[in-house]
Specification:
This protein has about 325 residues and is α+β, with helices and mostly antiparallel strands. It contains three helices and ten strands; from the N terminus they run H-H-H-E-E-E-E-E-E-E-E-E-E. The chain is rod-shaped.
Length: about 325
């Protein structure tokens, strides 16, 4: 066997090499699929968690919104009651104080961003308690309102009764006044048989009738008075004498003065004559008028007044008299 350094033209046989390419590709593919599957599963899991959380948030939000609505409704009822019953707040101060505390507690819970189940339960209980107290207030106010309505009705009835009584009293008073006025007028005495006699009173005490003015020193005035309904008793009759000069004769020292007549108002009277009258009977009245001055010639007018009305009058002439008069 020969040995040479030259390569032989005849190829030598070698062992075959292993092919790892497909294995690597397979492993990479499996790893990729696994990673993708995990990512897909993880993403789906996160979406499920997010959906669940969102549902919980929505539920909590809805529950909180319902709680807020219930609270707001209770406040509306409370405000309505408070607004329409301001006059009755004194009787409901204690309930208002308790409700104020409940409102503060409920607001404190609802102002939180998230509520625990315990807090939600507490809010529900507080709102229920609030509604119970509002309902109790409604009942109290309803009773008070009913009482007030009854009081108002009673007051209205009493006011109407008072007005009726006042009107009846006014009508009765008016009728009574009118009746009294009629009786007053009807009880005015009537004068008749009026006489005016000029007299000369002599020194011996004997009187002599005369028409000569310079001899007359008194006028004797007589008349009869009567009235069927006038009450028995003393009454005053006013005699007004007007002299020939047209002026009323008034001597205060002899009892002259003023009275109020129904037609002419304030009027001067010469003499006030008291009359003792007996109901249903005629009474003769006579008095003498003496004055502290001479009588003048001319006509003397006599007017008789009772109860403010003129009930009679007469005239008497006094002459100058004498041979040259």
């Amino acid at each position: 066997m020969s040995t040479t350094n030259y390569p032989s033209a005849t190829p030598q046989s070698q062992p075959p090499k292993k092919d790892y390419k497909n294995l690597v590709i397979g492993l990479l593919a499996a790893g990729f699929l696994g990673t993708w599957g995990y990512l897909l599963w993880n993403n789906n899991k996160q979406e499920q968690v997010q959906t669940q959380q969102q549902s919980q948030i929505t539920k909590v939000t809805d529950e909180k919104g319902q709680l807020q609505k219930n609270f707001d409704d209770a406040l509306v009822r409370l405000d309505s009651l408070t607004g329409t019953n301001n006059k009755q707040t004194a009787q409901l101060n204690e309930a208002n104080g308790q409700i104020g505390k409940l409102k503060g507690q409920i607001r404190g819970l609802l102002n939180k961003q998230h509520l625990t189940e315990a807090e939600k339960k507490k809010a529900e209980d507080l709102i229920k308690e609030l509604n119970d107290k509002v309902s109790s207030m409604e009942q109290q106010i309803a009773q008070l309102t009913q009482d007030n309505q009854q009081l108002t009705a009673d007051k209205t009835q009493l006011t109407q009764d008072k007005e009726k009584l006042t009107n009846d009293l006014s009508t009765t008073t008016t009728a009574k006044q009118e009746l009294e006025k009629k009786v007053d007028i009807a009880s005015t005495l009537n004068a008749s048989n009026i006489s005016i006699t000029p007299m000369h009173e002599r020194k011996d005490g004997k009187d002599k009738e005369t028409t000569t003015a310079r001899k007359v020193n008194k006028l004797v005035i007589g008349f009869d008075v009567a009235n069927r309904i006038a009450q028995t008793g003393q009454t005053d009759v006013y005699v007004c004498i007007t002299g020939p000069d047209g002026k009323p004769i008034s001597v205060p020292a002899l009892g002259s003065g003023n009275f109020t007549s129904r037609d002419d108002g304030d009027k001067i009277y010469t003499a006030k004559v008291p009359v003792d009258f007996e109901s249903g009977k005629s009474k003769s009245v006579q008095f003498a008028w003496k004055q502290n001055s001479e009588f003048m010639k001319g006509n003397y007018k006599i007017e008789i007044y009772h109860n403010g009305f003129k009930i009679g009058e007469g005239t008497r002439e006094l002459k100058k008299g004498g041979l040259f008069g």
